[in-house]
Amino acid sequence: MGYFDGLVSGSFKKDETGQTVFFPYGVFGRGKLAPSEDAAQSLRSGLKIYYMIALPVIIVVSILAGFLMSLGAAAVLMVVYEVWVRAKTSGWARSRGC
Do residues 32 and 89 make contact, with C-beta atoms less than 8 angstroms apart? Predict the structure, then answer.
C-alpha cells in the first residue's frame, strides 16, 4: 500500500452490516453510506488523485511563495474538496453509527 492509498483508506470504514461508510472529514461528523462498492471505489480513486495533486501544490506554493500564500492555496483546495465531495456523495444516506 502506497502513501496516498493509506491516506485515502483512513476515510473509509465498514459498518456492522458490512456496508462501506465514507467519512469526508475524518473523526469530525458522521459518515455517508456508499450505495455500492463501485461508488465507493470511484470515490477512493478520485480522492487519491485529489491528494496527489493537493499536497504537492501546497508544498510547492509554500516553498516558492511563502507560508501565507500556502494558507491561501490550502483554503482554495479545501473549498474544491468540499464542492467535489458534496457532488460525488449527493444522495448518499447518512450513517447511523460506526
Answer: yes
Amino acid at the residue 68: L
pTM: 0.85
Helices (H) and strands (E) in the chain, counts: 3, 3
Cα separation, 87 vs 78, whole angstroms? 14
Q: Given strand 32-33, what is the order of strands in its sheet?
A: 12-14, 20-22, 32-33
Q: What are phi and psi of 91, to 5 degrees?
A: 90, -10
Reply yes or no on whether the pLDDT at 97 is more than 70. no
Residues 18/2, Cβ–Cβ less than 8 Å: no
